[in-house]
From TrEMBL:
EC number from the UniProt entry: 4.1.1.45
The protein's name: 2-amino-3-carboxymuconate-6-semialdehyde decarboxylase
A Pfam match: Amidohydro_2
Tagged with keyword Transferase: no
Length: 330
């Protein structure tokens, strides 16, 4: 029984002209440079170079076989969320890319597990698209960690998460749209510092915003990139909750009481960091993720677990496979 990788992404090899199909505006396009190489474009600006492992199931499966990965959760690339557009436009975009995701995963449905995107800025439409996607063959949804200044404790977000809990839909939360500045726009600092901070902030919002107090524990929720910096700073968070209840003690229980309510992936690269995750959240709350096929991801997939000599074989199996099966409801 191989590893289950809960954090991978896809980009189709082609999609309709969104300015024609959806509406005028700055939309991502794909400049195809060869059969195996392309560039995602935003207008005239190069956004990210990608390879055929983003869209070609055979290339993806070959890499999975090389790394001992039995199944991948295949999620949207956050660029395509379209949360800055109208709800109607985002619905159209979600349908286009969700249907293309099914095509990409179709050659190996037992191994490639598609997750859908939803128009999160419109909660009613997000619930409807999640239902449509699940009925079409998706196994869950990936959402961004915020919509503009609305975090996961926004009423609309809570409504969507409640819908997912009620309908047994797993939710994978991915950081995106990190703020830029002259200090953050060099050295990929938005990805090196902003991405962990975004994820940390959203877990805080779930706790202090009372989401875990309102949404039932049946919600299957996971955060990408090891939960950002949350595990390392839980002690600071707990101390602040206890020392400043006038400002921070707004949740029903202290932060440490909610650790069994969410999972994180293992994309932390260093066994020392993985140990902090396991000791803070528990072995049962960590799942292998890789961020495949992007260059800041982990290859071979799960190598940080292999190098973790503090884990016994049962714990490694839980992180590599069993926890993901529970998250996926299998």
């Amino acid at each position: 029984m191989g590893t289950i990788d809960v954090h991978t992404h896809f980009v189709p090899s082609a999609w309709p002209d969104l300015s024609t199909q959806v509406g005028p505006g700055l939309w991502p396009t794909l400049r195809v440079d060869s059969e195996r190489d392309a560039m995602i474009m935003l207008g005239e600006t190069e956004f990210r170079r990608i390879g055929d492992d983003c869209w070609d199931a055979s290339a993806r499966l070959a890499d999975m076989d090389a790394d001992g990965v039995e199944m991948q959760v295949v999620s949207p690339t956050p660029l395509f969320f379209s949360y800055d557009k109208s709800g109607d436009e985002a619905v159209k975009v979600a349908r286009i890319f969700n249907d293309l995701a099914l095509e990409i995963c179709a050659p190996a449905p037992e191994r490639l597990i598609p997750f859908a995107q939803v128009p999160l800025q419109d909660p009613d439409a997000a619930c409807a698209e999640a239902d449509r996607a699940l009925a079409s063959g998706h196994a869950g949804v990936e959402i961004g960690n915020h919509v503009g200044d609305r975090d996961l404790d926004d009423e609309g977000m809570v409504m969507f998460l409640q819908h997912c809990a009620d309908n047994d839909i797993p939710v994978f939360v991915h950081p995106w749209d990190m703020p830029g500045s002259p200090r953050l726009d060099r050295w990929m600092a938005r990805w090196l510092t902003g991405m962990p901070a975004e994820t940390h902030l959203s877990i805080i919002a779930m706790i202090l915003g009372g989401v875990f107090d309102r949404v039932p524990p049946t919600l299957r929720l996971a955060f990408a990139h090891g939960g950002g910096s949350f595990a390392f700073w839980l002690g600071r968070f707990e101390n602040a909750w206890l020392q400043r209840p006038d400002l921070i003690g707004v949740s029903e229980r202290p932060p440490s009481a909610y650790l069994e309510r969410f999972s994180v992936d293992s994309v932390v690269f260093d066994p020392v960091a993985l140990r902090a995750l396991v000791e803070t959240l528990g072995t049962s709350q960590v799942m292998v993720g890789s961020d495949y096929p992007y260059p800041l991801g982990e290859r071979p997939v799960g190598s940080v677990v292999d190098r973790a000599d503090f884990l016994d074989e049962a714990q490694k199996r839980a992180i590599r496979r069993d926890n993901a099966l529970r998250f996926l409801g299998r």
